[in-house]
Amino acid sequence: MDINKAVADLMSRNSRVVNGYRYTLPSSELYPFQWLWDSCFHAIILSKYDVESAKEELRSVTKKPLSCGMLPHINYWRQPKDTVVTNWGREKRGDVIDATWGTDGTSSITQPPLMAKALWRVYHAVDKDVDFLKEIYPVLFDHHTYLINERDLNGDGLLFIINPDESGEDNSPRFDISLGLEAVHTSDDHLDRRISLVHKNLLCKFDSKTYARRYFAVIDVAFNIIYLESLQIMALIAQELGRDDETRIFKNLADRVRLSLRSMLSMDGSVRLYSYDLLREKFLKVNTWNLFMPLYGGLLDSNEASILVDCLKDERYFWTNFPIPTVARNSACYDPDDGFWRGPVWMAPNWFIYKGLMRYGYIDLATELAEKTRKLITLSGFREYYHPTTGEGLGAKDFTWGGLVTDMTDHEL
């Protein structure tokens, strides 16, 4: 299989244009809208062979920020017939909701802040289009301003998410305790709890801090490490645009977030960084793939990284026939057959972990991970997720995240 051609063909098949805005569906089979971090992945993939389409992807996904500046996790450009749409807080209910909140055709929650990384990669791909950088930067500045002002509950720089779906991982077991669920439950039970949080957010008139003190507030590991990287890149973009004051602001914020994450690491007394429930004041000690995000974020010294990599390579936990399962295989909630984010292999986590391994010089292990990731595609095609033992493709077909394998090289970290 010519993987590069296969990815290009897939991206072309899933491309859509509505009202002049081009975007890419994660899968036309199950995902007919535009998702925030999916579009960031798409832009990174497209930047390797079609920079103009990558720019259009970022233009469309930043087209509908909410009035507070937040970028929503879904843009509903159009609704195909017979499609059941989960209400993520996009409809107005009389006077209960502040009428200034919301944008027609969007959700009311966000996803991990990968946009700055995607913009920076597209900017450096070919032509360093400064005008494009100037076009997108103000939207990202407003989004980060929202995150800084509205999602930091304790003033330590770390952000809380208001729904598991803001992590991008929907039913990940690291949120079970925060949702009041046992390790084993139905997927419908999990979805019902997440949707109920949206309704509670509506009742709080989208006041994130009021909501967080009552219902759900988790400092999620992956979200905050991606945020740390985003702040660092925002500083680079501001510097490129000659915005010296903003460069200093983003650098200082990044330093504070890094220190706070390191403090969380030392609180637990190990090299394992777990998400933290602010309401319950406890670490959510579930061994998901998030354990390895400190490698991606560069938070560890070489000895700490070595301990974490040893855990990654251990066949009892994460190094399956086709790594990396999203949950350790010895966990009570491990469900590789039908677990969604509770055991199967997803391409984006493999991409993050690959980048982390490369960052710390584990070239051979990173290469092996990349090769096994490509083998999943040659074996089962572009699927939403895969069985970690058999490599069987599961979930949606023609799923675009598989295109990230073209970025699993040693050229770009």
SS summary, helix count: 14
| Helix/sheet category | mainly alpha
From the coordinates shown, what is the CATH architecture of the largest domain?
A: Alpha/alpha barrel
Which CATH top level class of the largest domain fits?
A: Mainly Alpha
Question: What distance separates the N and C termini?
Answer: 25 Å
What is the average of the pLDDT values? 93
Residues in helix, %: 40-55%
How many strands? 9
- Looking at CATH, which topology of the largest domain would you report? Glycosyltransferase
Q: Please state the overall shape, judged from the principal axes of the Cα atoms.
A: globular
The profile of the biggest β sheet is:
3 strands, antiparallel
Strand residue content: 5-15%
Q: Please, what is the oligomeric state?
A: single chain
Q: Number of domains in the coordinates?
A: 2
Cα radius of gyration in angstroms: 20 Å
Residue windows where pLDDT falls under 50 for at least 5 positions: 91-102
Write the H/E string, N to C.
HEEEHHEHHHHHEHHEEHHHHEE
Describe the strand arrangement of the main beta sheet, using strand numbers: 5-6-7
